[in-house]
Amino acid sequence: MDQSGRYSPQSAPATEDGFDLAAADAALAGTPFAGKLRYFPTIHSTNTYAMQQADAGAPEGMVYLADEQTAGRGRGAHAWSSPPGSGLYVSVLLRPRMAPADALWLSLAAGLAVRAAVEEVTSLRADLRWPNDLLLGRRKFCGILTELNAEVTRVRHAVVGIGINVHQEQFPEELRTLATSLCIETGRNWARQDLLLALLQSLQREVSALTSATNHAESILRRLEGASSWIRGRRVRVEEGEGFSGITEGLDARGFLVVRTAEGLRTVYSGGVREDHSATVR
């Protein structure tokens, strides 16, 4: 933050796991992200900043990257812990040609992109928990927050925010059964720049296909079925409205999760989904 109180992008530090933006730009040649990486040592929230920049006319493909977030956000009212140097905290500005009703596909495509990038770099195969969490075993290591500015018939811009736990060696007691990191799962540290490059390249492939191919949504549905143990046959508690429990029955044609409850099938539109061993159906 400069003396005026505004956040100003800076050169990334030459630390053991810093970011070499010049090398990243070279590796991203031919993608919409080349020359558009902006790094902040600390910032309130990369998503908040990216949305502000998008409103001010920033071009598609801008990537806002931080070493620390002081007010990182997840879905709903959830906060995202973003301690200095521990994770990959990045928000990507997109201007996709799509209707607001189709925006869920962006989050689902981003989840597949993260999963592919993590597997490419670490060989770990993450589990996708609908719509935007990635888990290793039963513990979460990545969250995705997609935000929109839209008219009735078109999306003006979208920001896809991704937080990945990379270097954390432990978590507070209250989070140890819920959260994990790539370091905890593998016993080694991974270069965040390698993850960033793999992620952006994978995200570009997914978004390009999503906005140009009429059947890409069907492809996402098929691949999600193979990438997630949560989509079918999982007993869950849904934090939507007053909450309800049931067994997941797959995704509908729009990408929303369908749950069989004691009262019948229900579609999950926005609520968080968690495992529920007590869920029963008639």
TrEMBL record:
Catalytic activity line of the entry: biotin + L-lysyl-[protein] + ATP = N(6)-biotinyl-L-lysyl-[protein] + AMP + diphosphate + H(+)
One Pfam family it belongs to: BPL_C
Sequence ranges assigned to domain BPL/LPL catalytic in this UniProt record: 29-211
UniProt-listed Enzyme Commission number(s): 6.3.4.15
Keyword Ligase assigned: yes
Keywords, comma-separated and alphabetical: Biotin, Ligase
Root EC class: ligase
Matching InterPro entries: aa-tRNA-synth_II/BPL/LPL (IPR045864), Biotin_CoA_COase_ligase (IPR004408), BPL_C (IPR003142), BPL_LPL_catalytic (IPR004143)
Matching SUPFAM superfamilies: Class II aaRS and biotin synthetases
GO cellular component, one term: cytoplasm
GO-annotated molecular function: biotin--[biotin carboxyl-carrier protein] ligase activity
PANTHER family xrefs: BIOTIN PROTEIN LIGASE, BIOTIN--PROTEIN LIGASE
UniProt name for this protein: biotin--[biotin carboxyl-carrier protein] ligase
Organism from which the protein derives: Paracidobacterium acidisoli
